[in-house]
Amino acid sequence: MDTTDAPQIIEHIHHSLSYTPYDVKWVPCSNRLICMGIHPNSKGALQVFQLNRGKIELTNDLNNLPHGVKCGTFGASSFEERHLATGDHSGKLNIYDLEYTPGNINNTATTVFSQQAHSSIINCIDGIGGGSQASGGYGAAEIVTGGRDGCVRLWDIRVPEPILALEPNAATASGTVNSLSKPGNAAVNAPTPRDCWTVAFGNSYNDEERCIVAGYDNGDVKLFDLRTNTMRYETNINNGVTCLEFDRRDIEMNKLVCTTLESRIRVFDMRTQHPTGGFTSLVEKAHKATVWCGRHLPQNRDIFMTGGGNGGINIYKYHYPANRQRILPSGPGEPENPPMGVVGNLELLNSKVITTQPIVNLDWNADKEGLAVLACLDQTLRVYIVTK
Q1: In whole angstroms, what separates CA 330 from the centre of its chain?
Q2: pTM for this predicted structure
Q3: Tens digit of pLDDT for each residue in 320-335?
């Protein structure tokens, strides 16, 4: 890899924490960021930091949360409200209003919504419909959660119960065969289901269309169409799925990045679905360890960054093929074969090992191109600048 003209990865801020961080997010339209995690005494940690002239300042500290906070999103909130939706270790979905009083770091956030969403830890969360096209603003504001109980649930905070649930089927001991159902239809005495590790919204290019994709610890990837209320596609990629993200959620499905255990990154071309072959994909080895997260650059959907278990970050650029569809020749007298997608290739722009512990989450700033924040298991919060 020639890094002469590659994007440079520059550390801007290195901040030590007193707890283990799980997730980190930029507060929309601001110079603030939020770090979520768990203290050694199992209490939840949620801190708001502000960047100020090259330094980071703590502006709000919610240090009395009863349970560790595993994940969070601003996706279902407008830029004016900026409500943070979180999932915690007890299975609760909470939405906080984090507007604070300057000079007082011990503000207690107002809880806008709180509901027992899962029977155990909520591993992942995503939101959509926050009122702007940049955040996937088409359609109603919705939140999707995935938990250790194997369930994926869709929430509209105007009602207290989930509006849709994907729950494990009692027919299989592995819990890998699932069915869409209305809430409350969970199987009784069902065997232990597979953990749902990641969820993401996509395909929200108008007020009707919307999809959810979910990844499980056994390698299952399932795509659910919310308009037709059906499972549109499912496959198994042989390794536990740690992160899923569409390159853009407010356009027709284009690309899906999937990071997994065993040092794998898989990129699906989502424009063409073959009736039997499904979506085409490419596989890339990276980090020589688990790839924990992958996030697309908001200003350029063909560039994404991954965080690895080796403490490194990789920056990739996706190159499209000359033709995104191909049709296999059919025999004499046979009908024409349906089109099949053609996947492109990945170019590694740069990589850098920045710590000895895994990088479990990262987030790009939507307003400042190349500004990223990373959460590391060495109990540090790092802000990086990526040039070019």
Answers
A1: 40
A2: 0.89
A3: 999 999 988 877 877 8
